[in-house]
Design goal:
six-stranded antiparallel β-sheet, alpha+beta, Rossmann fold, Beta-Lactamase, elongated, 5 domains
């Protein structure tokens, strides 16, 4: 009956029997009442009753005479002949029942109250106990003495400060065999809420047995779980005909045991698990073995208590070492990747986790997985938005978090939900530095009866500040390294010469351009390394003082064939306001000076060359206003047009010069050659018409695709050819422009019937 499975509390009476009741009969209200007070074995056949008595399962027998086809006289005769000390109570219909002639120890009516039945059973148990008191034999005494010595040795080992738990656990089965005659055993641990059972010490618990115990535990309410694990169970023999199949019978069957004990394991007044003892021999365990089992369980509890103390001390030492290891990262000049990898590795190892990750907060307000350890579902580089998943919530709130079942957690990241196993716990802590969150440290651990999640979280919280400092320093070093590399690249490739001196006279930095200048001047670099800044200043700028230098003005210096340089020298001031270094930058201004001279020359040329045609135009214009010059109008008109053409050509020459100088700076572009030629021809038609010249364009074959080049210059070249042809062709003549292909080349021809190019000028045509 199921109710009995929750109330199996055993109380040993003597060496030969236990305080159990054998009930032969059908289920009835009196049997139900007995289940709640005694350890009852319910059988329905006489042969099962005899097997139970042979196994000494009970000292008291209740026989319900209402059981069909029951031979009460024959049954009582066998009991009296074979088990004289057993107390028998008959349940009868009336006081004149023939069954009473068999002289039972007690009898009751089927209509008797449960209280009366319980009283009678207790009285019979006392009588049975008194009849079983007999002195032990010498062999039994020696066996008990050996068991006592083994328990004493077990206690000494368990109480030792130098306890090696591996040796202790390795000898535990042998100790169980000597102490309580158990051929096998199991040590199952539970958590503070009694929600799980596990073979925490890996003793090799039979898998079926563990499954049966776990399944039953999960079927109970929180209150019933403590009662179940706190009960003492003694099954002397697993009899096939016993009914019902109680939990203790299912457990023994799953372990392959015919004799079975289960005792609570109490450590520091807290229910920590159970100790189970198995034997393949029926009737191996009795009440005395139950007492020895209690002592055996107590010694295991002592060993676990000492082991936990040792682990706490050892873990405290390990934590201190881990914190020191992370603290050393602050002093070491390591890359950020190395620091992050070391931090997550130390964290996972410190709390014996499975995997871990460090996520850093990006400036754009999202987390980036920056380092992982173990087979983590996170991939380095993955981005997690703030407020998403455990890490995103921690980064947003700045508070630690524990997720005991990620797959069922409402805030789980969808694509990560199925990557976390149900028997894992995800711990996460913020990495805070100077009031801001740098990132998040996450570690995944396995659920275990011996694990304290709060302790693990406290360890990570203890580790987090040191980790945050190390990360902040590594990030600063990364920025400094990046800035240094960037500055080095600028100095190495800039066209300016850069030199840095300290105030004590040492050259600290010189870029390649400065070394090139010194090489051209035949000045060894080592001479400058030994020279003071004052000596260099006096050599190159004799008239300058340090006060002049600190004003920030530039100074020009001529280095002969090397050219002219503009030099700026500036002080570098330290935090105390004192000058620590001087930096000098020299720019080559030779080209600028040449361009300035060219500009001056160009202005001079233009002012001179434009003055003459402008003067002619002015003079011709004034003569046109004279009425007496009408006969020379045509000549004056031609003079004005010729002077204007001259000024236009001067301006065009300036434009062409600028175009040629900028060619090296522009990039080539795609263009259609036929479009450019047609545009120039159309632009020149008015000029040709004015001079009574026929200008025609003929396109034989255009390029099949776009060309790459400088379309402005191409157009200018075509314009020059056409303009010259018109210019040197007399009125009534013609100019023909054609476009054709010659192999892979485009060919532009300008043909006229003018005076042509003088023979002495042909060598200069290109």
């Amino acid at each position: 009956m199921n109710s009995s499975e929750d109330t199996l509390i055993h109380r040993p009476v003597g060496i030969g029997r236990t305080s159990a009741v054998l009930w032969l009969g059908n289920a009835c209200p009196l049997l139900e009442a007995t289940w709640s007070r005694f350890n009852v074995y319910h059988v329905s056949r006489p042969d099962a009753l005899f097997m139970a008595l042979d196994s000494c399962l009970a000292t008291c027998v209740v026989i319900d005479t209402a059981l069909p086809e029951l031979n009460v006289p024959g049954l009582m005769s066998q009991i009296r002949n074979r088990w004289a000390s057993v107390q028998v109570l008959l349940l009868v219909d009336s006081t004149d029942s023939p069954a009473l002639e068999t002289r039972p120890n007690a009898y009751l009516s089927h209509q008797a109250s449960p209280a009366t039945l319980i009283t009678e059973i207790r009285r019979m148990m006392v009588a049975a106990e008194q009849s079983l008191e007999e002195p032990a034999s010498e062999s039994e005494k020696r066996a008990w003495q050996e068991r006592a010595r083994q328990l004493e040795r077990l206690l000494q080992v368990a109480s030792s400060t130098a306890l090696d738990i591996r040796d202790f656990l390795g000898d535990l089965r042998q100790s169980a065999q000597i102490t309580v005659n158990a051929d096998n055993m199991a040590l199952l641990m539970t958590d503070a809420e009694c929600t799980i059972l596990s073979d925490a010490f890996n003793l090799g618990t039979p898998g079926d047995y563990l499954d049966v115990c776990r399944a039953h535990l999960q079927s109970l309410s929180p209150e019933e779980r403590r009662i179940y694990l706190g009960d003492e169970v003694l099954l002397r023999e697993r009899v096939p005909g016993l009914m019902p199949a109680t939990q203790r019978v299912r457990e023994a069957e799953a372990a392959g045991a015919w004799s079975y004990m289960r005792l609570p394991l109490v450590v520091d007044d807290q229910l920590a698990g159970v100790v189970a003892l198995f034997s393949p021999i029926p009737g191996q365990f009795d009440g005395a073995h139950l007492q020895l089992g209690r002592l055996f369980s107590a010694q295991i509890a002592t060993a676990i208590r000492n082991m936990r103390l040792y682990w706490r001390l050892n873990r405290s030492e390990q934590r201190q070492k881990a914190v020191e290891s992370v603290a050393r990262l602050i002093a070491d000049d390591l890359t950020l990747d190395t620091v992050l990898s070391r931090i997550v590795e130390e964290a996972v190892r410190l709390i014996q986790g499975k995997q871990g990750a460090v996520l850093l907060l990006h400036s754009d307000n999202y987390l980036v997985v920056s380092a992982v350890y173990g087979d983590t579902p996170h991939a380095v580089g993955r981005q997690i938005p703030l407020g998403s998943g455990q890490a995103g919530i921690i980064a947003e709130s700045g508070q630690p978090s524990v997720v005991t079942n990620y797959t069922e957690w409402e805030h789980a990241v969808p694509d990560l939900r199925d990557k976390f196993l149900p028997d894992t716990i995800l711990l996460g802590v913020p990495l805070n530095y100077h009031g801001r969150v740098l990132g998040v440290l996450q570690v995944m651990v396995e659920k275990s009866a011996s694990r304290s999640v709060q302790d693990d979280l406290d360890v990570l919280m203890m580790l987090a500040p040191q980790a945050a400092i190390a990360i902040a320093k590594a990030q600063l070093h990364e920025r400094v390294r990046h800035d240094h590399q960037q500055l080095r690249a600028i100095l190495d490739h800039t066209a300016a010469a850069v030199v840095v001196w300290n105030t004590e006279g040492g050259l600290e930095l010189m870029n390649p351009e400065a070394k090139r200048i010194l090489d051209r001047l035949n000045i060894p670099v080592k001479d400058w390394r030994k020279a003071t800044f004052s000596a260099i200043l006096a050599e190159f700028f004799p008239g300058l003082s340090l006060d002049d230098i600190q004003s920030g003005s530039g100074f020009e210096i001529s280095l002969g064939e090397l050219g002219d340089y503009l030099v700026h020298v500036a002080p570098i001031v330290g935090p105390d306001g004192q000058v620590e270094q001087y930096v000098g930058v020299a720019h080559d201004i030779t080209q600028l000076r040449r361009l300035d001279q060219m500009k001056s020359d160009l202005i001079h040329i233009l002012s001179h060359d434009l003055r003459n045609p402008l003067g002619l135009v002015r003079g011709a214009y004034d003569m046109l206003k004279d009425p007496g010059m009408e006969h020379q109008y045509a000549q004056l008109h031609e003079m004005i047009v010729s002077s204007l053409d001259r000024m236009q050509q001067l301006i065009q020459d300036v434009v062409d010069l600028e175009m040629a100088e900028s060619l090296g700076q522009d990039t080539a572009a795609s263009y259609q050659l036929e479009t450019i030629v047609q545009t120039v021809v159309k632009r020149s038609l008015s000029k040709a018409k004015l001079q009574e010249i026929t200008l025609v364009y003929r396109e034989e074959q255009r390029p099949p695709h776009l060309l790459e080049g400088y379309p402005v210059l191409i157009g200018q070249a075509v314009d020059n050819l056409i303009s010259n042809a018109i210019k040197y062709t007399p009125p009534g003549g013609y100019v023909e422009v054609s476009l054709d292909m010659r192999g892979e080349e485009a060919l532009i021809r300008v043909k006229d019937n003018g005076i042509g190019i003088p023979a002495d000028a042909l060598p200069h045509i290109f």
